[in-house]
Amino acid sequence: MTTPGRQRLDKWLWFARVVKTRSLAAKLVSAGHVRINAQKIDAPAKQVVADDVLTISLERQVRVLKVIAPGERRGPYDEARHLYEDLTPPPDTSDEAAGSVPRRDAGSGRPTKRDRRQLSVWIGRE
């Protein structure tokens, strides 16, 4: 039996469309990837109420969601987004954070194939 205004954490994650299935929500919580009000939770049956702040560590991001209401059903996205307020900070797009692909100015560094051909014509090799 549930108390009005409360809902199981795994069920709420599923209703809010954070995960695809309720069993994945239970696994996410059991693995310790969810915090409620900065406290680590490992029981999917933990009850959430309005104004709880959930920190969810997903595969590629960490989401911070404030619970606004418990869900009635797992409806479409437009209905699900009314269950929470997204407090996740925007991703850092600075050059230091990117770090994956180095950038260079056009014309600097190694010559392109086109540049090499033009150089060969200029030198007179062709």
Secondary structure topology:
Blueprint: E1 7-8, H1 9-15, H2 22-30, E2 34-36, E3 39-41, E4 47-48, E5 53-57, E6 62-67, H3 77-80, E7 84-86, H4 95-98, H5 113-123
Antiparallel strand pairs: 1-4, 2-3, 2-5, 5-6, 6-7
Helix pairs in contact: 1-2
Stretches where pLDDT is under 50 for at least 5 consecutive residues are: none
DSSP summary, beta strand count: 7
Average pLDDT rating: 87
Over the alpha carbons, how many angstroms does the gyration radius reach? 25 Å
What topology, given as strand order, has the largest sheet? 3-2-5-6-7
N-to-C order of helices and strands: EHHEEEEEHEHH
CATH architecture, by name, is Roll
* Outline: rod-shaped
Gist?
The chain has 126 residues and is of the alpha+beta class. The protein has helices spanning 9-15, 22-30, 77-80, 95-98, 113-123; strands spanning 7-8, 34-36, 39-41, 47-48, 53-57, 62-67, 84-86.
Task: Explain what the structure shows.
28% of the residues lie in helices and 19% in strands. It is α+β, with helices and mostly antiparallel strands and 126 residues long. The protein has a single domain, classed as Structural Genomics Hypothetical 15.5 Kd Protein In mrcA-pckA Intergenic Region, Chain A (Roll). The strands form two sheets. A five-stranded antiparallel β-sheet has the order 3-2-5-6-7. Strands 1-4 form a two-stranded antiparallel ribbon. Strand 5 and strand 6 form a beta hairpin. The longest helix is centred in the last third of the chain and has 11 residues. It starts with 6 loop residues before the first strand and ends with a helix. The model has no long low-confidence stretch (mean pLDDT 87).
